[in-house]
């Protein structure tokens, strides 16, 4: 039996490499989104601490300077949080683009793998036909030798 060689194996290899590269891009984008979310969590925690501090400042002896500093810090944290939301949205968009790209490469690779599988099945059928023909010829030859 001859060895099966898929004539478009190099294309399949390229498709697999492209998919692997797209997976890496997806993982990087996913990590970036996770980092941005963590930054937002830190900012929210800091805002909450400023709010807690403000409640404490209002219940104790009034210190107008500290209250103003606290209000300014709260406003700044809210601005940072809004900026962080924009960063998160950008990271989500990059992640979505990476996901779409990865899905496209996966479809291409699966298509080529299916073509390879079909080519292998055709190869098996052809080999079986060839072997059947050889068996028939051998049987005919042996039968012909018995008669003579």
Topology record:
Blueprint: H1 9-59, H2 64-147
Helix pairs in contact: 1-2
The name of the CATH topology is: Helix Hairpins
What distance lies between the first and last C-alpha atoms, to the nearest angstrom? Answer: 32 Å
> How many beta-strand segments?
0
CA-atom Rg in angstroms: 34 Å
Could you tell me the strand content as a percent range? Answer: under 5%
Mean pLDDT: 92
- Which percent bin holds the helix content? over 70%
Named at the architecture level, the CATH assignment is Orthogonal Bundle
Shape: rod-shaped
Walk me through the structure.
The chain is mostly helical and 148 residues long. It has one domain (9-147): Orthogonal Bundle (Helix Hairpins). It has 2 helices and no strands. Helix 1 (9-59) runs antiparallel to helix 2 (64-147). The longest helix has 84 residues, at 64-147. The chain is rod-shaped. The chain starts with 8 loop residues before the first helix and ends with a helix. The relative contact order is 0.13. The model has no long low-confidence stretch (mean pLDDT 92).
């Amino acid at each position: 039996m001859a060895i099966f060689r898929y004539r478009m194996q190099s294309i399949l290899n390229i498709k697999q490499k492209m998919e692997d590269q797209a997976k890496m891009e997806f993982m990087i984008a996913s990590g970036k989104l996770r980092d941005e979310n963590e930054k937002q969590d830190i900012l929210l925690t800091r805002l909450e601490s400023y709010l807690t501090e403000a409640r404490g400042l209002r219940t104790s002896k009034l210190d107008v300077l500290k209250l103003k500093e606290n209000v300014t810090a709260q406003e700044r944290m809210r601005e940072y949080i809004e900026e962080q939301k924009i960063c998160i949205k950008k990271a989500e968009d990059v992640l979505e683009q990476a996901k779409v790209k990865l899905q496209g490469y996966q479809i291409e690779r699966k298509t080529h793998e299916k073509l390879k599988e079909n080519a292998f099945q055709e190869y098996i059928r052809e080999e079986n036909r060839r072997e059947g023909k050889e068996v028939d010829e051998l049987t005919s030859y042996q039968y012909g030798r018995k008669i003579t």
